[in-house]
Amino acid sequence: MSWTLDTAHTTVSFSVRHMGLSKVRGQFTRFGGEVSGDPADVAGARGRIEIEMASIDTGNPDRDAHLRSAELFDVDRFPTMVFEAKSVTPAGDGRYVVVGELTIKGVTRPVELDYEHGGEGVDPFGNHKVGGTLTTTIKRSDWGLKWNLPLDGGGWLVSDNVAIEIDVQLVRSRAAVEEGAAAESSVSA
Predict the structure, then answer these.
(1) Which of 31, 48, 92, 109 lies deepest, with the highest CB count within 10 Å?
(2) How far, CA to CA in Å, does 8 sit from each of 12, 69, 186?
């Protein structure tokens, strides 16, 4: 089965410590993706999400402009970030470990995400939905995102660790479900 990212009900967000004191939070507002698999067999799922880096929003236009600049994301040269899920392993109690490759600024590295399966259902419009929450922490320097400033008392302005959270909802439209059922009926007839 093929599923499409329901962008109206998905959030791609992150947080990073500033001066070791507080967390600055942000999100990406434009993204898309697909997952193939059966909701009854989460471990068999594979997928890809592509995020438009220029869509970063931390609530501060100056900070967002700096994040888009060549000092950090360099969105003119590297407009997208891509995560490709390669394997999903059960971890018990509706939790899974998703292993894949994350590409930022042309650098591809393996990452592991924790996935908490939220379940599945049909919305009031007949669309079959499935979703859950993916989380991980990465070191931004592993992808060449090294800009920083030292603090007078020691330490750095921005942490190297970035927490990522994706609250994902996927949709398989009623039309796709009906097409699949029709195809199955014609095979068994």
Answers:
(1) 31
(2) 11, 27, 34
What is the residue whose two structure tokens read 């500033």?
Answer: 18
Query: The tokens of 49 are what?
Result: 């999400």
Report the alpha-carbon distance of residue 141 to residue 161 in Å, rounded: 9
3-state secondary structure of 187: helix
- The residue behind tokens 């939220």 is 118
pLDDT digits (tens, 9 = 90+) for 53-105: 999 999 999 999 999 999 999 999 999 999 999 999 999 998 999 999 999 99
- Evaluate if residue 184 carries a pLDDT over 90: no
Within 8 A by CB and 6+ apart from 154, the residues are none
pTM above threshold 0.85: yes
The per-residue pLDDT for range 10-50, each reduced to its tens digit, is 999 999 999 999 999 999 999 999 999 988 889 999 999 99
Structure tokens at 79: 């407009």
Sign of CA dihedral 14, 17, 21, 26: negative
Residue 171, amino acid: V
Nearest C-alpha neighbor of 142 from the set 110, 98, 99: 110
If we measure between CA atoms, which residue out of 93, 106, 113 comes closest to residue 47?
113
Q: How many CB atoms lie within 10 A of CB 2?
A: 12
